[in-house]
Amino acid sequence: MYFIRKRLLLPALLLLNGFHASAQSAAGVSTITQSFDTYRQQTLQEKLFLHVDQAVHFTGETVWFKLFYVDGSFHKSLAISKVAYVELLDKDQKPVLQTKVDLSAGTRNGSLFLPSSVLSGNYVLRAYTSWMRNFSPAYFFEQPLTIINPFRPLEPPTLKETPKHIVQLFPEGGHLVQDLPSKVAFSVTDATGHGLTANGWLLTAQNDTITRFSTHKFGIGSFSFTPSGTTTYRVVISDSKGKFMTQALPAIQERGYTMRVAEADGNRLNVTVYSTVSAASAVYLFAHTRQQIKAAEMRSLQRETTFTLDKNALGEGISHLTVFDAAHKPVCERLYFKRPAHPLAIDLKTDQRQYAYRTKVTLDATVQASANVQNQADLSVAVYRVDSLAAFKAPDILSYLWLSSDLQGSVESPDYYFQPETADVRLAADNLMLTHGWRRFKWETVLAAKSQSVRFPFVPDYNSLLVQGRVTDPSSNAPVPNVLTYLSIPGKPVRLFVSKSDSAGRIRFEMRDFYGQKQLIVQTNPTDSLYHLTIDSPFADQPSTTPLPDLLLDEQKGESIQNRSVAMQVQNTFWGDQSLRYRYPTVDSTAFYSEGRESYLLDAYTRFPTMEDILREYVLGVQPRKRQGHFRLIVPNAPYREFFEESPLVLIDGVPVFDMDKVMAFSPLKVQKLDVVTNRYFMGPATFHGIISFMTYKGDLAGFPLDTRLLKLDYDGLQLQREFYAPRYSTPKQQESRLPDGRTLLYWNPALRPNEQGKSQVDFYTSDLAGSYLIEVNGLSGNGNAGFQRLLFEVKKTE
After folding, report:
1. Does any domain span residue 159?
2. 769, part of any domain
3. What's the number of domains the chain is made of?
4. Which of 374, 489, 640, 642 has its CA at 20 to 30 Å from residue 419's CA atom?
5. pTM of the model
6. How far apart are CA 524 and CA 522, in angstroms?
7. Residue 627's domain is classified under what CATH number?
8. pLDDT 10s digits, 138-162
């Protein structure tokens, strides 16, 4: 009987244990995926790509650029942030030029004019949104540019100690563990990040060779071995010139986890997890592609276990494979790259391969047609002369969105990984993934997101440019909450913005239709005038992550520099006026309160000598009163036929004024118009009991004495869009014009839209400069497919 019971009990226990393991697996997977999904919803990822017209410029020229603004997961066009911040940084990380560009649909392009104050050198052009400042600057778009100032001698490079080669070692999964098989990737680069060809040896303390290895591509390679706890290791590297370097291995843990990712048959990946942790009972594998969850699975673990992933289930681009232990702690992670199967194919064709001076070039650009109008491609086109001055290769949108933007640091020749796939390309891509382990978050933050919201200091410019600042107590520098502040822009039309400080003393003004440089006046009510007001810079103070080599110009480049310099001066001398064309946006020209219930053009009335006479004689909506020797103005609450007891908002050219004695002492001969709002006016957190708005003839305050305690500053709004100009030679008279044409940039079009068949055609004219010209096209379809194409043609002088 006991034997029968025991035989019946054993299957029941096994079934119960299996059910418990299954429940544990489901609960563990759910915990990780729910935390990750909650974090993803709270932290939208943005990406910016700039197509810059060319990688080398001279002072006196204009840098033209197109902004592609997309979400980080699907690479589809976004409409969250309305402003991009673009700046040019020198080698000392100091901003040389800064601008703000409108990201509204249809206007995502801009320019930077290079003044003669910019010195010759290598610079970084970077771009980001306010929201992107919440994350690492490694996610900002960055592109190195060479700028040459032909009028100022190149400063000799600072004498520095010759930098050593940089050797880095990266265990697969993150760690080396005693007695567990490991794969170690390595990179050998110079100080600027360029890979070097090298050979290496893994040696013991007794100089016994464990394994030999060599770089495969771009200074990157890998080797495998199983570390022993009783052996000390070192890596010796020899470059192509016979220079030797020694590098210690990363610390070898006594216990822990390692992982190995390998290609398997049937378009699959095997992810093997090894462990020497005695209490290890299970591990989880979590895979996501740009924060899109692709796999989540648990397996039992003794010493090793293998997960099998279908590569078709992984997204295109870079996927993160993370291993968690039974307590949901991340213990290993690595990246895997999957090439996009169907990038946006762009076909370029010119009507000829060789052209004479001042000849029309017809360019046909064809992309895959889409039946959905929203999926049609957005292309940007640059055509420029190729010379020997460019020190950097411009990035393309295809490799940037699918590769570079999701990796830490710079990637050498990213377009290499998008050529037709071979065994060498696959190996190079895998080595790259091993040496660029990276993610946009910390797992501690992700796992905590399920129970608490993630807070960020920088908010997006949702509707328009945000001007942000703080209200503080000057004696303690402590933030002061609940203080109503006013921001005004003197001039026409009348603009006023209000904000109440939050618990951290922050104030934010949403500046609609704010273009060009203006003077801002920020103030509080005089009752709060002891508080200190500051306006923050909207630009990031984090340094660039792109290393910049010194600019070296040898004698062999002298002729190219001279030719390009002469061409620049010719253009500025003969065509400068034509190139200074701007596209002015349509803005609302009415005052912020629209129209006053009463409006007076004072020139249409008798000009009395004092403001009091004018208000008493014919301005119905304002009653001047005097109390204890000081003036007070009140307006009627028209709907109720009674006067407000509270004081109205009084403006001079849009600037709030709180001292009515100054208003009454102001000469009415300087005032052109007076508006009166005779009802309550609600504006954000403020309620105004009527509005009295005085406007001078020029909108410049006409010498009105403002309070000395308010904050005045010059502030750049969104840049006005500059129009690219190129002459056309469609008639014999134009071709025979004696005006020299020294254009090296023949054509720039940041917004080329193919038709429903995917076809587009543009034409432009060559200049008076011979040489090889490069057509570069970057494009993005509505469904997130990116593409890039180049085409060369020649321009020669006819005999």
Report:
1. no
2. no
3. 1
4. 374
5. 0.92
6. 7
7. 2.170.130.10
8. 889 999 999 999 988 877 666 555 5
